[in-house]
Amino acid sequence: MTKHIKPSHLEILPDICDLCGACIAVCPTNVMNIIHDKLFIDFEGCTYCSFCVDICPVRAIEECYN
Amino acid sequence: MNRSHYKLFHQKYNVIVVGGGPAGTTAAKYAAKSGAKVILFERDPVIGIPARCGEGVSKRGIKGFVPLKGPWIVNRLNQVELIAPDGNSIKLETSLIGYVLDRTKFDKVLGDYAEAAGARIVTEADVTNLIKNNGRVTGVRVNYKGSDYEVSGDIIIGADGVESRVGRWAGIKTMTKLDNMESALKINATNIKINPAACLFYFGREVAPGGYLWVFPKDAHHANIGIGISGNYSREKPAKYYLERFMGKYFPHVEWTNVVAGGVPCNPPLKQLTMDNVMLSGDAGHQVNPLTGAGIANALQAGKFAGEIAGEALRSPDPIDSSLKMYTKRWYRARGKHHKSNTRLKNAVNKLDDDKLNELARLMNKIPRNEWSFLKIFLLAIRSSPDLIIDCMKVFRKS
Ligand SMILES: Cc1cc2nc3c(=O)[nH]c(=O)nc-3n(C[C@H](O)[C@H](O)[C@H](O)COP(=O)(O)OP(=O)(O)OC[C@H]3O[C@@H](n4cnc5c(N)ncnc54)[C@H](O)[C@@H]3O)c2cc1C
């Protein structure tokens, strides 16, 4: 497996996200939530570990590097 | 503010249930039956929609919770086929393996039972946090159709599914490790030709690494097809990739609708299911069979225990928090041993590569079905494949 390089940002793709909540359960800092049928990340507490990216069955969260 | 909402939210409840899945509605029913004043909040507009589920369940799992005849049961299965990576399969037939449910109707009828027992169910009600006073949880904050309310209660039951936050808010460590989470996807196949009595399970790193792929027929032309892969593997390729590849290979002309994503928390049992006056139930309490990913039956049983014990705690002269501790004990007595041995078995099975799985299937097929027993398989495996048995020994030594 390749080493994980922390992204500078995570982007949720709302058209792909099915609101299943798998990402919420694996988030180590509990910064993910569904609010009014939309998934949110509170970036203040996010460590960019990308577990949410990894677990998503439909790849609805993208890692951005800049 | 609407007057009826004001009345609904400005009363004190004995039990507040968060989440209207099988765990939540069952907890609400049993708590209400014991005389408690119960309110259940569900985020979605309708109980049972969406159904993030393969809808397979055993008879024992639902017996006593719903009648075994009714619109919530769409098919009865009496055959099972376990398919090894090389395509060889183990076939079993009994009088009844289990049912395929209609989860939407199933969840709805469970909600009806809760209401019939006296619980109040409020949908479109998103619980956004716990309310704490001097460190003690006194209620929940809820967003109902866009407005925020505070509702107070003596006991909070978090039955908020895989995405549970109630436990974390209360201080129970419920994060699921990536390798314990099954990243899952389910589709409805609509023009398949299939034996309606047989459920199929496909295994192997090629098909579903760290999990399995299942086909649960609803009738000869419709089936739920789904996959779960371990979070260990899903960084490389997502569950969607494996499911699409499988469909292309095995059912290339089959059409499907209703793609539903999901996570199945296949954790070891939680050490503590309560924190003071907060209880967790179902997926929220990690009460899923970690080997199979089946969570419906456990959610029902956990919900029943949680509701009953909440009722007992309210009647007891002892402090509520200490009475609720009984919940963890009762759960461990009923399922603890089973849950722990299934955790070990899961870890061992996940270590088997495709060659070993093929070998295991080959060995098991040598034993006549009427002579199947663990001992028989064990002895045969020792003779033919000593290293395979070392893995199994590790599993069963401690269980
Ligand atoms: C793809 C897939 C296939 C599966 N197949 C099977 C199978 O074939 N057989 C089986 O036994 N199990 C299966 N499972 C597991 C099973 O679906 C779950 O274990 C079961 O639904 C757990 O019930 P629950 O009541 O704990 O949670 P859920 O059914 O998830 O219910 C939780 C409810 O809480 C609500 N909620 C969450 N947060 C809040 C909040 N803050 N406020 C208000 N409401 C909230 C949610 O909207 C949801 O309705 C499958 C799971 C998946 C993902």
Describe this structure in words.
The complex is a heterodimer of chains A (66) and B (399). Chain A is α+β, with helices and mostly antiparallel strands and 66 residues long. Chain A has one domain (9-64): Alpha-Beta Plaits (2-Layer Sandwich). Chain A contains two helices and four strands; from the N terminus they run βαββαβ. Chain A has a two-stranded antiparallel ribbon. The mean pLDDT of chain A is 94. Chain B has 399 residues and is an alpha/beta fold. Chain B folds into three domains: 3-50 and 104-176 and 270-335, FAD/NAD(P)-binding domain (3-Layer(bba) Sandwich); 73-101 and 178-265, D-Amino Acid Oxidase, subunit A, domain 2 (D-Amino Acid Oxidase, Chain A, domain 2); 348-398, no CATH class. Helix content of chain B is 35%, strand content 28%. Chain B has helices at 3-9, 22-33, 59-62, 103-116, 166-170, 239-250, 296-315, 320-324, 326-351, 354-365, 374-384, 386-397; strands at residues 12-18, 38-41, 56-57, 73-83, 89-101, 120-122, 125-133, 136-144, 147-158, 181-189, 198-202, 212-217, 223-230, 256-265, 274-275, 278-280. In chain B, strands 1, 2, 6, 7, 8, 9, 15 and 16 form an eight-stranded mixed sheet that branches. Chain B has an eight-stranded mixed sheet with strand order 3-5-4-11-12-13-10-14. In chain B, strand 7 (125-133) and strand 8 form a beta hairpin. In chain B, helix 2 (22-33) packs parallel to helix 7 and helix 9 (326-351) packs antiparallel against helix 12 (386-397). The radius of gyration of chain B is 22 Å and the shape is globular. The relative contact order of chain B is 0.15. The interface between A and B is medium-sized, with 25 and 32 residues. Bound molecules: flavin-adenine dinucleotide (FAD).
